[in-house]
Design goal:
Largest sheet: none
Structural class: mainly alpha
Helix content: over 70%
Shape: globular
Strand content: under 5%
Radius of gyration: 11 Å
Order of helices and strands: HHHHH
Length: about 70
């Protein structure tokens, strides 16, 4: 799951011309992969995720986490 999240982060960062760590750090992705949040409230519990990052990236990362849970 961590590898999938890193690929998603890189794609989003490349689209916006940003360094990947600006989207989310590796530590945040590791916590996402471990906790597998499935709701916006759970996503906000991840250290490093706030309202702005939830609004900007929440839906796409939650979709990836849900898809990965079924794989």
């Amino acid at each position: 799951m961590f590898a999938r999240l890193k690929v998603l982060r890189k794609r989003l960062a490349d689209e916006k011309g940003l360094p990947a760590y600006i989207v989310f750090s590796d530590a945040v992705l590791l916590e996402m992969a471990a906790l597998r949040p499935s709701t916006e409230d759970e996503f906000l519990q991840i250290s490093g995720v706030g309202p702005k990052k939830l609004a900007r990236y929440g839906a796409i990362f939650l979709a990836e986490l849900r898809q990965g849970a079924g794989a």
